[in-house]
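Read as amino acids, tokens; as here:

___
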Amino acid sequence: MISAVTKYFPELSSNQRTQFEKLVTHFKSWNEKINLVSRKDMDGFLERHVLHSLAIYKAMKFASGSRILDVGTGGGLPGLPLAILMPDVNFVLCDSTGKKIKVVSELVKALDLKNVEPMHARAGDIEGKFDFIVSRAVSRLDKFIPWVEGKIDKRAINAWPNGILCLKGGDLREELEEVNHPTEELQISQWFTEEYFETKAVVYVTL
């Protein structure tokens, strides 16, 4: 059922495999009631949504004890797949749409995730500092960065300086030129061979 994930992450524990299976089952059920992702995408949910989210892990595995803020999480992407893969990392998943965060809260319960805190809030209203901000095509970076640049912790416990890891697609040259911070574009096709990932990237912004 989750072969698209185990193909690249064969080291998953039996509990993690069960959590990914539950994520697929419960997400599909909720998506029929609330439009979390395009319904035509659900046949390819594992590849286009779960595996896509996990590209952030391939870019950088967060250090144990890291605090990660997922901004505009929607139905819990990329935060929930990352939280399953990294149970020793703490995630706050925020979205300004209440009904979506309600679904995320139900998914957290169903998956028995102890390292996830869903929050109905905009990024600017979240208290505390984080090692990294993650997001999935929420907005252009020149608009996104001002929402979160005050949220980055000064401590550094990861391999890279703290900042943003965003999932993006297409030609990003113009968008990255608008950013007044160091950026790096990491092609997802170096990790995942499916055709879908040929035009997808993880963008790292140092703040």
Summary: Helices lie at 3-6, 14-31, 45-59, 79-85, 98-111, 141-148, 173-177.
